[in-house]
Amino acid sequence: MSSNAVSQVILFLFALLALALPLGAYIARVFSGEATLAQRALGPIERGVYRLAGVREDEDMPWHRYAGAALVFNLAGALVVYGLQRAQRWLPLNPAHMGAVSPEVSFNTAVSFATNTNWQAYSGETSLSFLTQMLALTVQNFVSAATGIAVLMALVRGFTGREAKGLGSFWVDLTKATLYVLVPLSFALALVLVSEGVVQTLTPSLSATMIETGATGARAQSIALGPAASQIAIKQLGTNGGGFFNANAAHPLENPTPLSNFVQLLAILVIPAALCFTFGRAVKDRRQGWALLGAMLVIFVPLVFATVAAEQAGNPNLTALGVDASASALSSGGNMEGKEARFGITQSALWATATTAASNGSVNAMHDSFTPLGAIAPLWLMQLGEIVFGGVGSGLYGMLVYAIIAVFIAGLMVGRTPEFLGKKIEAYEMKMASLVILLPSAAVLIGTAIACVVPEGARAVANPGVHGFTEILYAFSSGANNNGSAFGGLTVNGRFYSTAIGLCMLVGRYWVIVPVLAIAGSLAKKKSIPPSSGTLPTHTPLFVGLLVATIVLVGALTFLPALALGPVVEHLSLAGR
Amino acid sequence: MRSLVRPALSLLLIFTILTGVVYPLAVTGAARLLFARQAEGSALLRGGRVVGSSLIGQPFDSPRYFWSRPSATSPHPYNAASSSGSNIGPSTPALSDAVRARIAALRAADPTASATVPADLVTASASGLDPHISPGAAMYQARRVAGARAMSEQRVRALIERHIEGRTWGVLGEPRVNVLLLNLALDEAR
Questions:
Q1: Burial call A174-201: b when 16+ CB within 10 Å, e when fewer
Q2: Contact by Cβ (8 Å): B119, A493
Q3: Are A225 and B129 in contact (CB under 8 A)?
Q4: How far is CA A157 from CA A34, A164, A168, A265, B90, in A?
């Protein structure tokens, strides 16, 4: 690996930590109600929102009411997204005269954005009006991310509560996350992106006269524009990932420079990383936050380098034809199919790993064209359940569920009742934790199996043979874990995939949120027991190792057979030629 | 249950206005004020005419111009109204066939060109609108362009050198050449 590749990755990791530390502290202050500058400035708006919505700021919801609030709010949001797509042809802000989106794609997109997945069965610039992009997609980008943060805060209160009945108010958490965290950060990021060349306008297109006549025999080039920067800022910060344009963050008007790429990459991971520090502060033991972040990095960093190395090695089929895949001062080399010249191998591989570690799913290179080994890390990171950084809020609550399983396994080994942060982990918590792990995994594997045998499922693949299987496996891994990236060759706007992936996204989001809140409710009711000599400390390298081993074991046992059938076979057939 | 519906609907309405209307319009206003050129697509003007965007690639196929990377947008390459990559898998025969044809086209336009071709010059970009090629891919075409224009190869190479954009802070991204800007400079060079 070139020294430049190593420098790019290291610079990224340092910048990430430098931003996440203060942000984590800030988010902790927001939710503990300490006065911040933003609270003084936006406090009147916050109180106005509560008054208008009839929200009691001090309501303390039991877990099932908290879950009910989250579900009702998400359902209402999904219905609005569905309705706007169906009705956009009669609504304003539709300069390109987009017609109604089909019912199944509208369903898929509504679920996709409500669940923070942002799977794109639609193509942005050719099917959605500006009104739909703004009122449906941008709004859900904010509130689905805020829902994730809210659920995490409820789980945190489960740990910090002492014989408590409630987990706080979903409405208050949702409002605080949106108003104090997501909106200010997005506004600043959007302007930084525009300064680098990301478009932000209500003009639908730019007409140019090209230098040479193109394939159509015309010299006219119509360049699609739109209010992209505002949507892109929140799509990255909220780990949403749905692009304004079809090519997503590979589009030069969404991501024009290496600097805009770097800033967007940081935006993808910064809130999930910061929430680890927020967690440490909230449970009054910052080492707990570092331990969780440490476990994430132990999994993430090797996978980044593995992906860079696999993509840099290039495609043996093309090397045989005379393609120069070696990196030099003049050319990045490597597997450049589906990658942009300004990002080259390193920024593309780093992005692919980060976007699938977080449940972001935006892409700056086409994963379908990655080398087989280069596609393994993105696939597997999604299949682990989006817990290595993961989605905003959802990543950390998923990771905490794994931590509960890790202390349980440790408890079995020494024959003691497991405890985590002073709370006993008992049968009820373990049942709920198992549901969180099992249901999305089952959706991935069963969904893939069904798609392989029904005609409509198999017909949709773009690449024959084993790569086609990987396309299907990727689609269900992405949907059921709320990532949203895709092997784009698979045609997913037909009835089968729109519906099947839509259902998987629902499973992956709500069948995780509800058991997590159940755990939170059960933990909150318990007494806190002081640590004794028999307590397994959960901030040590030993525990980080145990946690990583648990994640890797569960992930490997569940998905190795499927990965072997897809990318591993394809790699062997490529390397063996 | 009913006590959840009112806050849910009112908060959704409030956030729709705040994040779906106020926020994008505020960004649009601020962007127009601060970065008007970028916000509208970074148009390139020559003689009062928009000849393209400095961020969006264009197709070139005359030997007098540097060629851009292959583009997989449909229905025609460099369709800036419908971005797309090829999404062809690494072991799919169609990929090898396409690359073989592209190498043949380059060699046909310049039989003296080297047998090994820079990877980015014969592979389709992710967006189909990539404005750049690697410096290596530009140098590869220097002799052909010089011959077609009756310029010295040295001058063409010097022009390429002047158009190389380096890594940000010497670290981030890859060195690259903007094909449209380079070709415009070629036309303006005498």
A1: bbbbbbbbbbebbbebbbbbbbbbbbbb
A2: no
A3: no
A4: 16, 9, 8, 30, 48
Inspect the interface and report whether the beta carbons of A187 and B26 lie closer than 8 Å: yes
Q: Residue A263 and residue A270: Cα distance in Å, rounded?
A: 10
Who's near A243: CB < 8 A, 6+ residues apart? Answer: A120, A124, A232, A235, A249, A251, A254, A362
**pLDDT score for B190:** 67
Asked if pLDDT for residue B11 goes beyond 70, the answer is: yes
Q: Which position has the token pair 């005359």? A: B62
Quick check: B53 contacting A, CB < 8 Å?
A: yes
pLDDT at residue number A243: 84
* Chain A residues inside the 8 Å CB shell of B167: 4, 258
Contact between B6 and A245 using a beta-carbon 8 Å cutoff: no
| Claim to verify: residue B14 and residue B51 sit in the same structural domain | no
Instruction: With H, G, I as helix, E, B as strand and everything else as coil, classify residue A21.
Output: helix
Q: Please tell me which residue of chain A has the smallest CA distance to B17.
A: A135
Structure tokens at B113: 């060109």
Parallel, antiparallel, or unpaired: how do β-strands A419-420 and A423-424 relate? antiparallel
A-B C-beta contacts closer than 8 Å: 404
Please judge whether A324 and B116 are an interchain contact, meaning their C-beta atoms are less than 8 angstroms apart. Answer: yes
The pair of structure tokens assigned to A120 is 């794109």
The answer to whether B91 contacts A178, with C-beta atoms less than 8 Å apart, is no
**Number of domains, chain B:** 2
**Which mean pLDDT values do the consecutive 10-residue runs of chain A (577 residues) have?**
93 98 97 86 94 94 97 96 95 89 93 92 80 90 97 96 94 97 97 97 93 82 94 96 91 98 98 98 96 97 97 95 92 96 97 96 96 96 95 96 95 88 95 95 96 92 91 96 92 93 95 96 94 88 96 92 96 86
Please, what is the average pLDDT of chain B? 95
Residue B33 shares a structural domain with residue B123? no
Domain with B87 in it: 42-188
Q: Which of residues 57-96 of B touch A (CB under 8 A)?
A: 57-62, 65, 69, 76-78, 80-92, 95-96
pLDDT tens digits for range B25-53: 999 999 999 999 999 999 999 989 999 99
- In A339-454, alpha helices (H): 344-357, 372-383, 394-414, 427-453
Are residues B118 and B176 part of one domain? yes
Do B31 and B64 have their domain in common? no
Helix/strand/coil for B174: coil
> CA A452, CA A441: separation in Å to the nearest integer?
17
Contacts A488 to B, Cβ<8 Å: 84-85, 87
Contacts of residue A142 in chain B, CB cutoff 8 Å? 15, 19
Domain identity same for B91 and B55: yes
* pLDDT of res. A217: 77
Are residues B177 and B90 part of one domain? yes
**Both B104 and B174 in a single domain?**
yes
Do residues B46 and B24 both lie within one domain? no
Q: Rounded to whole angstroms, how far apart are CA atoms A444 and A99?
A: 33
Q: pLDDT digit string (tens) for B96-113?
A: 999 999 999 999 999 999
Percent of chain B with pLDDT over 90: 94
Contact by Cβ (8 Å): A265, A235: no
Q: Å from A546 to nearest chain B CA?
A: 35
Cα torsion A532, A535, A540, A541: sign: positive
Q: B117 to chain A, minimum CA–CA distance in Å?
A: 5
